[in-house]
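Researcher: Please translate sequence to structure tokens.
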Amino acid sequence: MKRVLILAVAVTGLILPTAANAGAFQGVVIAKNAKRKAIVTASANGVVRTTRTPKSFGKIGLGALVAVRARQLPDGTFAAATTKQIRRVKHARVRATVVKHAGQKLFLTAGNSVFVLGLRSGAGAKLGPGDRVTASASFGKAQLFCDTVMPAGHDDELELEGIYLSTEEGVMSLAVHGRGLVKVSVPDGFHLPELKPGDEVSLHATVESGGAFTLVSIDNEDAGDASTGGDGGVDIGNQLFTVGGVLRSLSSTSVGVEVDGHPEPVRCAVPASVNLTGFAVGQAVAMSCKYADGRFLLVKLSRTTDSPGDGDGSLDLQGSITELNPTAVTVSHEGQSALCVLQGGEDLRGFAVGDVVEMQCDYNKKLGHYVLTALTSDGASVAYGADGLTEWLDLNGVLASIRSDGIGIKVDGHSALVNCAMPAGTDLSGFALGDSVEMECNYSDGRWNLSSLSSDSAQLTLE
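Model: Translation complete:
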């Protein structure tokens, strides 16, 4: 009999509390959790919150300043009613507690999430588990880098969340923020809930002398039961399972397949010896994986004709822009490419070939191709959301054109000037051609409008 792997979330963990816990706040996105479909934000005063945003999760990137209306859940995280991106920022401030210091990474916990700061020049070298800190950080292409970090006390108990790996000889292994391994001692007589490798868990632990952790309480956020039969799901037995579906993510280290009835793609790690040349996001595939060394490992990947065909659903791809024109954009990663056609109003002047981006597209069966729904880089964003199309850019370059109705800057990698309009009579007396500037623009009323311009000696901000 077929057994179906159900990826579910405990119902009790998603019951909304009363309206008294509803509220609105703003924050900068400092981390994302794909399994929770949650963003982690830091407010201007450093307060960190974890907000579950299943509808807009894929369209929000690191460094986005967002306005959120949400209700607090019993586990301390928030469930978003609305999430609106305001603009992109370059810096954030956080108040958090140290989980571990490993090499050039500082793992921190706050707001019911664990996130990581990249360290430079030996910053934070003397910090240890339980140390409470205030840190300022700046955004790189794919992570948050610590600029300054100041001790602010010490906590004897902290919160951890991550992926359960195993429990051996009374010690639980937990993967926090993707790759950080944390070990937590389980006291004698402590009754652990039923856990499976890969489960998302949250727990409280005391910080012992020397930085060791001892479990106080634990909650399994994944509540699955692999006993339901059905077609098109997952066959599993003898630690091996096979899925049929549509290839949704592909890299040299991981592959994800969208399966009917599952809230997110089923993912397996790719062994270094496996070459996936010839596969592309959007293809119908059968994927076989086995459980080994605390993870699911790809055994076989093959094209199929009896599962959902190529060009179905949606795709989400991180990579570099390889082709860009007024009607379409192509993004490639590890030799695999995806082309998405632009929709009405989408203007990609903030992007250039070579930019590292995250791209989301939906398949339009009537048109017979994928259409762009979101494209985000460090310097620009285009996204269709509940409020319609939003576009912004924040680029550095050389001021090359000053006109009565707008300006243009020369940006490395861009074949043409990046132009933005401005109201007649705007005072640019502090600027001159040839200045190195940072230009921010927003798209509205059918054109790109200047919102700010700054150089080493001048600053202009338009409402």
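Researcher: Any highlights?
Model: The two ends are 64 Å apart (CA to CA).
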